[in-house]
Specification:
By secondary structure, the chain is an all-beta fold. The protein has one domain (3-197). Helix content is 3%, strand content 52%.
């Protein structure tokens, strides 16, 4: 794979999030296979990766707003999701909203739950600090919810199951940029994960 070296203006922390999300209606609730959903491991996207301790990113990252000044990068890849994969460039001094979380950079960065009816559903959960993100420690956050309303009004009940696997990949002063047309190696979920289960019984 041909790459071009790039040096950051300051060291950047890199956090990886793998996302599983499934939304279904009341009539599908009985047939939903939770065990198969939790067991899904095949990553369907790749917005960047680490290999032999080096960071590899697509060359179009230079077009991202905030790329030059960021000191916190979030790679969001999909296992199961209708959303597009994401590459986020943030500032560690801020409390950054990412999916259902707020991430504060630092040494170490902190992962906080930020409950929202429209992104999680009922029952409500207390917004709280979930963990500190350190190298070689991977967390799997499980959460579910139900909604009877959208932003435009009442609608049939829907259920939402979500799993996020979160890992701190390290601090980097440089990276290698590859062509956007490059076929990338498949990613795999880390095998050892600490589960934080926030799921509730839903009726």
């Amino acid at each position: 794979m041909k790459t071009v070296p790039h040096s950051f203006s300051r060291p950047i922390q890199v956090i990886q999030i793998y996302r599983k999300q499934s939304r279904f209606g009341k009539e599908e609730k009985k047939s939903f296979d939770l065990n198969a959903f939790l067991a899904a491991e095949e990553v369907s996207s790749n917005v960047g990766f680490i290999e032999n301790g080096a960071l590899f990113l697509p060359e179009n990252v230079k077009e991202h707003t905030g790329f030059a000044e960021a000191d916190l990068m979030i790679l969001v890849d999909n296992v199961i999701s209708e959303k597009r994969e994401e590459l986020l460039f943030l500032h560690s001094a801020s409390l950054n909203s990412v999916e259902i979380f707020k991430i504060r950079g630092g040494n170490p960065p902190e992962l906080h739950l930020e409950w929202s009816y429209f992104y999680v559903g009922d029952p409500s959960r207390q917004s709280m600090k979930l963990c500190e993100l350190v190298r070689n420690k991977v967390y799997e956050i499980r959460i579910n919810g139900k909604t009877d309303f959208s932003l435009t009004g009442r609608r049939p009940r829907h259920y939402l199951e979500q799993v996020f696997v979160v890992a701190h990949l390290g601090n980097f002063s440089e990276c290698s940029l590859f062509s956007d047309s490059e076929i990338l190696p498949p990613k795999t979920l880390p095998e050892v994960r600490k589960v934080i289960d926030l799921r509730k019984l839903l009726w």
